[in-house]
Amino acid sequence: MNEDLYGYRRAYQRFACFLKGVCEYSGGKSQEISCNDISYKGAGIIAAQPLAINSNLKMQLSNFKIGPIEVEGKVCWCNNVYGKWRAGISFNKILPFSLEKIV
Question: What is the pTM of this model?
């Protein structure tokens, strides 16, 4: 990916993380997810089932450093990679805490 384009597309730097959780979407459906990168305004997640692009969702994420945090956002993209679904999520609000608690 072009570095100039990448920097332009994302206003906030993403950080590697290891979070597990659940996402709820479209009419009460839910599934377990993992989150492998996060910023103050978005995240990259991995799911077993595809997520509809432009759909809204709620996620509860946690790891050994932090208890469950709840964020809401929209699915920007979703692709099948080696049998799992990777998706980019844009949060509705900027995270109100330091990412040092997570990464």
Answer: 0.86
Structural domain contains residue 70: yes
Please state the domain count of the chain: 1
Tokens 């994420």 — which residue? Answer: 61
Neighbours of 40 (CB within 10 A): 17
CATH number of the domain residue 47 falls in: 2.40.10.220
Q: Please state, in angstroms and rounded to a whole number, the distance separating the CA atoms of residues 84 and 99.
A: 26
Give the Cα separation of 40 and 53 in Å (integer): 21
* 39-61 residue pLDDT tens: 999 999 999 999 999 999 999 99
